[in-house]
Structures are given as C-alpha cells and as structure tokens.
Amino acid sequence: MKKLTALFLALLMLVSMCACASPASTEDDAYQAKVALCLVTPVNDGAWSQLAYDAVMKAKDTYNISVKYTENIKPTEMEAVFTDYASQGYDLIIGHSFSFGDAALAVAERYPDTKFIVIDGTVSSENVASYTLKMQEVGYLEGIAAGMMTKTNKVGFVAGLVGPAIIKVAEGYKLGVQAVNPNCDVYTAYTGSTEDVQKSKEAAQAMIDKGVDLIGGGGNASNAGMIKACEEAGVYAFGELEQQNLAPETVIFCNMNNIENLVLQAVKDTIDGDFQGCIREYGIAADVAQLTEYNSHVPQEVKDKLAECMDQMRSGELDIPMITEISDDIIH
C-alpha cells in the first residue's frame, strides 16, 4: 500500500511539474520590434517621404516589425513627436530629415534604451545614428561633366533650401569642376525654396547673363525654373530624379538618391543588432547615390571619365569629402 501511495504521489508531482512548465516558444511568440517613421512632408508626396514609407513597409514584411508613421511634422513639433513614440516603448524612431537632429539628441538622453536614426543627418550619440547620403559624389560627377563640357569656362549651380543635403551636392560640384578645369568659374545661388520655380529661373538667368553655359540643380521641384531658363538660352543643365523629362535636349543627366535602400539598411542594422551611434555614409558604392542615363549631348570622353571616377568611388580610391558649410563661389 505504501508503495502504491508513493507511486501515486510521484505521478502527481510529475503532472504538476509538466503543468507548470513554460510552453515551448513559437514563432508567433517572438518579439515584434516597434519602428516609428517621422516625416516632414506628406507620406504620399511621391518623392522623399513616399520613398521612406515604402522602405519601412518593405521592412515590415521582411523583419516582422510593427510600423507607425507621423507626417507633416513641423520643426516645433519634432521633439514632442519623438518623445511620444519613445514613451510608448518604440525600439527605433527614424527622423527622415537632417532637421530631426536636435530633437533626436534631446529625446535620446531621456530614453537611452530607444534607438534613434536621422536620415541624411549630421549628429550622433550612444543611441543616435545618422545615415547620410554621399550626395557629394553625384555633385562631384556633375562637376566633372560641367568642367569638361563648358565652352565659356563659367558654370553654375542653383540650389533651394540651405541644408547639409544640398550643400554637399553644391560643394561636391565645385570640387568636380576644379578637378578637371581649375580655371573655370563656378557660381552658386540658394533660392531658399524647393517650390518657387520663378526664383529658380531668375537665379539661373542671372548666371546665364554672366556667360554661364551649364547649370546644376539642387532645388527639387523648383529646378523646373532653372531648367526652363537653360532651355530658353540654349545651355545645358543637370536635374534631379526624373527631371530629364522636362527638357530632354537640355538636361544632359540627373542625379538620383535611392532613399529606399538607405532606410532599409538603417532598419536592418538595428534589427540585426548592428546599430552604432555614429554617422554612416552611403553613396555610389552602395547604389544609394546614382546618375540617370546620359543624353546624346554628353561626349564619349566625358562618359569615360565619369565611369572611371565611379569605379574609383566603388573601390575606395576616390573619396569625396563631405562639406556641409557653404564656401565662396570660385571666381577667377
């Protein structure tokens, strides 16, 4: 009888242990990271913000993350939006503009367990990283073409807003021109707008009146004005994204940025545990900065030089410095 009682008690203990044991973890129980995307323009703008949104949606499917976004964030609202997401326990907060830099640094101090990434930023701390475009590379390549193709030894660059992203292109442009044509004058103008087409046209016309025969553009939508002035004057231009369609005979090629790849890389690094509080640059070598196809007016020797420079950028032999402060025009 005692043996039966002991056996019964042993069985009860075994059943109790099995009942109390934690169930085996399943894929559904895996932690789902929370990612927030913060935008300064509408999510459906068809450009900068849309590309970032598409990227995080792709990352959502790839990495099984939870995604939420806020659009049309004003500078005065940035810190509050970041704080709201951080207080909700979001693992990664992405500010999709250099202008989120100060907010990221401020909120990061209060939420050390949250990771912050500023796209095209210039800031970093222990839990803040900037993923920036090497747009100085495409500016440099445009400058190479401008310096080789100019007949008057006078070229220009019309930019929109004053900010690191555009300054990098404009200063890279100057470096490219000087690399192949040190006697060439380079004029730059910042209109203060990415939408004012008339200001862009007037700035370009002022350069054309000085003898400039090739102009680069860093004004986003406002480039349409610069391109129109060039078309009317019979001089060449560089555009952005698909602006070659505005005047195919005038715009010899455009620069492009693959924002989707950059944002995807930022999410991937964080999910994989490779986040580092530093500034990471991606350009030609990572297919983040790119050029469109050349039109028929680009000479073969220019194409060859551009191909050579891009190969050197990919190999690391040619490193274009990131300049985020406006330098003086180069006038001889």
Strand and helix layout:
Elements lengths: L1 H19 L13 E5 L9 H16 L2 E5 L7 H10 L4 E4 L5 H10 L4 E5 L8 E6 L1 H15 L4 E6 L4 H17 L4 E6 L6 H12 L5 E5 L4 H11 L2 E5 L10 E7 L1 H13 L7 E4 L6 E3 L8 H16 L17
Parallel strand pairs: 1-2, 1-3, 3-4, 4-5, 5-11, 6-7, 6-8, 8-9, 9-10
Antiparallel strand pairs: 10-12
Walkthrough of the structure:
With 332 residues, the protein is of the alpha/beta class. It has helices spanning 2-20, 48-63, 78-87, 101-110, 135-149, 164-180, 197-208, 223-233, 259-271, 300-315; strands at 34-38, 66-70, 92-95, 115-119, 128-133, 154-159, 185-190, 214-218, 236-240, 251-257, 279-282, 289-291. Strands 2-1-3-4-5-11 form a 6-stranded parallel sheet, sandwiched between helices. Strand 1 (34-38), helix 2 and strand 2 form a beta-alpha-beta unit. Helix 2 runs parallel beside helix 9 (259-271), helix 3 packs parallel to helix 4 and helix 7 (197-208) packs parallel to helix 8. The model is unreliable at 1-29 (pLDDT under 50).
